[in-house]
Amino acid sequence: MFEGRYGKFWIRDDILFVVYKPELVISLKVAKQVVRDRLEVQQNLEYPVFCDLSGVTDSSLVARRYLVQEGTLLIKALAFYTTSPVAVRLTEFYLKTLNHKVPTKFFTNKDQAINFLKPYMDMK
Q1: Predicted confidence (pLDDT) per residue in 64-87, tens digit
Q2: Low-confidence ranges of the chain (pLDDT < 50)
């Protein structure tokens, strides 16, 4: 496991897990660092990504745009997970307002999120 300033990252069963730290506001600076950390963990390999947004309290428009564009490098598919009411609203807005380059879905159930990613685990 790698712990960065804004989150924790680990790979298990060919899925990359990203868990943001509590009370996190995602600015462009934060988004760029999270992507750098994720790419370091991935070591130039593509993975489906499980992203736990429970700690996120807000995000800027420029950060969201960055994450949906440059931030999807080496991601096969993306499952957002949270049960936090604030993160749920932010994620629903994010998914509705920006065009995503990779298959992306939002879940409030961890098992459903992981099941969504399974078809992308063995893709070369």
Answers
A1: 889 988 899 999 999 999 888 776
A2: none
Confirm if 59 and 94 have CB atoms less than 8 A apart: yes
Structurally, how many domains does the chain consist of? 1
Predicted local confidence at residue 122, as pLDDT: 73
Which pLDDT does position 99 carry in this prediction? 64
Q: What is the pTM of this model?
A: 0.90
Q: Is the residue at 58 inside a domain?
A: yes
> 113: which DSSP letter?
H
The CA R_g of the chain, rounded to the nearest whole Å, is: 13
Count of Cβ atoms closer than 10 Å to residue 61 Cβ: 11
Q: What is the DSSP string of 11-74?
A: EETTEEEEEEPTTEEE-HHHHHHHHHHHHHHHTT--EEEEEE-TTEEEE-HHHHHHHHTGGGTT
Rounded to 5°, angle at Cα 78 from 64 and 10: 100
Q: Is residue 28 part of a domain?
A: yes
Residue 123 lies in a domain: no
